[in-house]
Amino acid sequence: MRVVEASDLHRSYRTRTGMWKRERKEVEAVRGVSFGIDQGELFGLLGPNGAGKTTTIKMLITLLLPTGGSARVLGHDVVTEPREVRRHIGYVFGGDRGLYERLNALDNLRYFAELYGVAPREQKQRIGYLLELVGLTGREKERVEGFSRGMRQRLHIARGLLHDPEVLFLDEPTIGIDPVGARELRATIGTLKEQGKTILLTTHYMFEADELCDRIAVIRAGELVAEGTPAVLKRRVSNGHVLEVETYGVPDSALAAVRSLAGVRTAAVEDRGQAQLLIVQVEPGAEVTSAVLGSLREVNVGRVSSREPTLEDAYVELVGGA
Ligand SMILES: Nc1ncnc2c1ncn2[C@@H]1O[C@H](COP(=O)(O)OP(=O)(O)OP(=O)(O)O)[C@@H](O)[C@H]1O
């Protein structure tokens, strides 16, 4: 049995637009999404803004009813058995709402432990353990209003784990957190996985997904466009290599010339301070370096390098144009 199973999930929203002449509009946020997550797996759901990730998660955690299709968590239907589903899941949304600012961390956790029905005699030990897990031991007597974003986010995770759920939904948990804090949070997520939790994670950081996820699904405009391990996605989309050329002012004609070369799959330009980076996805087995440099004869060229494709390259190719 799969721990999380989404079958042809649909969700549309009715919205009203216009101040005077009110028009009803229907937005199809999720259009037939299916996937499964196995016990102990860390599954990543990736996609651009507005792709339907949060809407999908909200249906799985029983906060939103599907308008079509179905989903089960640990065998329980999210529509007909929401209480059973909630008993076994925890969720953490990025951002810093949902904590009591005037209370300290410990009292926040005590309050939510009570709310989630954690037995009184277990509360003390459980809260102590979670404070340790998220690295807030020693800060628990401080009011949340003085906490940094990273500390709040760690407290959110502790809150989501109070009732020791088997399945965790983490929606952009590292958003807005500094690199050191984000790294610590990733380590915490890794620990949870080692403990056997089944986790669904969304993130906009591709290296994070690559580092943490066993399997990834990419969603675009409400539909899944790819699914597989990070390695498979990288190979499936970009089984060649990537050539990077540092340049200073690439005219469109030169870019077009590079794109039309045999062996070049795609080429794009990214700004890097004063310079620009020309990123060329190369077909497997093709050798295009001298031809690319030939197309750039009129252009000031800096460092030239070749590298393996990253998950971000694969992602950009998958959702390109979204
Ligand atoms: N309550 C709502 N009412 C109307 N439309 C909504 C509502 N919530 C989401 N949408 C729309 O549904 C679509 C999917 O939104 P959703 O929040 O699921 O995307 P997302 O992939 O989580 O995006 P992000 O990466 O920005 O968080 C978007 O077009 C959004 O505008």
From TrEMBL:
Keyword DNA repair: no
Protein topology in the membrane: Peripheral membrane protein
Alphabetical list of SUPFAM superfamilies matching this protein: P-loop containing nucleoside triphosphate hydrolases
Localization: Cell membrane
Domain ABC transporter: 4-246
Keywords: Antibiotic resistance, ATP-binding, Nucleotide-binding, Transport
CC annotations in GO: plasma membrane
GO process terms (BP): response to antibiotic
Gene Ontology molecular functions: ATP binding; ATP hydrolysis activity
PANTHER family in UniProt: ABC TRANSPORTER ATP-BINDING PROTEIN, ABC TRANSPORTER, ATP-BINDING PROTEIN
Name of this chain's protein: ABC transporter ATP-binding protein
Source organism of the structure: Nocardioides mesophilus
Species classification: Bacteria, Bacillati, Actinomycetota, Actinomycetes, Propionibacteriales
